[in-house]
Specification:
Layout (H helix, E strand, L loop, with lengths): L6 E4 L3 H12 L4 E4 L7 H6 L1 E6 L6 E4 L2 E3 L2 H5 L4 E4 L6 H8 L8 E4 L6 H11 L7 E5 L4 E7 L2 E7 L3 E6 L4 H8 L6 E3 L3 H6 L3 H4 L1 H6 L1 H7 L12 H20 L7 H9 L6 H6 L16 H4 L1 H15 L5 H14 L3 H4 L3 H4 L6 H10 L6
Parallel strand pairs: 1-2, 1-6, 2-5, 3-10, 6-7, 7-8, 11-12
Antiparallel strand pairs: 3-4, 8-11, 9-10
Length: 370
């Protein structure tokens, strides 16, 4: 009998708890790590997470092998390390884990947002990590999920297909082969340029939160984010952002999916326009808006999604006025310079690379003196 793949899930938020519980229910040994022990105290005491789900979806108690706030202990026996935290924390996790990694381990950023694998790679390199590991990123998070309590999670929907790419892309199939027993939903995402520029969180999250700012603050998020929050007018703003993202991708030789095409791929829903497609997505019903504007939809998706896309646009001469407007609104709303805090090209280690060199780096892992 072959040894079961040991998964370590980094992050005990909505997504991390859902993933850890689901993997455990599938029969895999699972370690759950969170940097603050208080957040996982109830799970550690119980040794399991109660998972609830949509009709016919996974549910029950997922029993965990280990629950810890010690990063070295968390990754010691891991075959696959699933990073399920806001991407604003990817760099710090890379620095924290650099000394504990071992040859052969796979790290998957769920999701990478834009430039996640590049950033993680650069931090490990700067930390002189000698372990021969593989970094991969997903295009989006596989679950629509929420936390129902300190040791509970709920899955609203599991996406039908989630593109994944390794850095370099020559390693992608090896990663898919390892995780296929757990997740048949992951598919070849071409390379990390594709996964980064097919980042739908960049389109759906920050603009929608900011355009509904008054409603979020006056109701503490007591409305359905994607159903009530997406009106024909807000959807037109999302479509403008989406056109800019697709144009930036084209400047790098990538044919990015439109938001409506992505909804069809991920959820098998269609519509005459983006507004109709979102309204037709049954998995969005019941998902409440954030209860505050101090939410990852802004503090994560602006610096880790919009800023790198806009930085690529500036580097390669693409106008992204709508995107820049949303970044500016976020800076004003949070009194924060997200341009400075965000994933600019120098933080990804690609600021001096041509389009051809970035593509070679993503596909073959070739590095340049930059």
């Amino acid at each position: 009998m072959s040894k079961k793949t040991h998964y370590t899930v980094i992050g005990a938020g909505n997504g991390g708890k859902a993933m850890a519980a689901h993997l455990a229910l599938k029969g895999f040994p699972v370690t759950l790590y969170n940097r603050t022990s208080a957040r996982i105290a109830a799970i550690k005491e119980l040794g399991k997470i109660m998972l609830e789900s949509f009709e016919g979806g996974p549910h029950g108690f997922g029993e965990l092998k280990m629950v810890t706030s010690d990063i070295g202990e968390a990754v010691k026996d891991a075959d696959v390390i699933m990073v399920v935290i806001p991407s604003s924390g990817h760099a710090s996790i890379a620095a924290k884990v650099a000394r504990s990694l071992k040859d052969g381990q796979i790290i998957i950023l769920n999701p990478g947002r834009t430039g996640g694998a590049f950033e993680f790679h650069k931090v490990l390199k700067d930390m002189d990590c000698q372990a021969k590991i593989t970094i991969a990123e997903t295009e989006t998070f596989i679950y629509a999920s929420r936390s129902e309590g300190p040791a509970e999670a709920r899955i609203f929907r599991i996406k039908n297909a989630v593109p994944l790419a390794a850095l370099p892309a020559t390693k992608t199939q090896e990663v898919l082969d390892v995780i296929h027993e757990a997740y048949t939903e992951f598919i070849d995402g071409v390379n990390v340029i594709h996964t980064g520029l097919n980042n739908m969180g960049a389109i759906f999250h920050p603009a929608l939160a900011l355009l509904n700012a008054g409603r979020i603050e006056s109701t503490s998020g007591d409305f359905q984010f994607y159903i009530d929050g997406v009106t024909p007018s807000t959807a037109r703003v999302l479509e403008a952002l989406d056109r800019e993202r697709v144009t930036v991708a084209a400047s790098l030789g990538v044919r990015a999916r439109t938001a409506t095409e992505w909804l069809q791929l991920a959820y098998n829903v269609q519509g005459e326009n983006l507004y109709e497609a979102i309204q037709n997505q049954s998995g969005y019903y019941g998902i409440k808006a954030p209860n505050t504007l101090r939410h990852r939809y802004i503090f994560e998706d602006v610096p880790m999604s919009l800023v790198p896309i806009a930085s690529l646009a500036k580097r390669y001469g693409v106008s992204v006025r709508a995107m820049e407007s949303i970044i500016r609104l976020a800076c004003i709303t949070h009194s924060t310079d997200y341009w400075r805090r965000g994933r600019t090209l120098d933080k990804l280690g690609i600021e001096r690379l041509s389009v051809g060199e970035i593509t070679r780096f993503a596909n073959e892992g070739l590095e340049f003196n930059n």
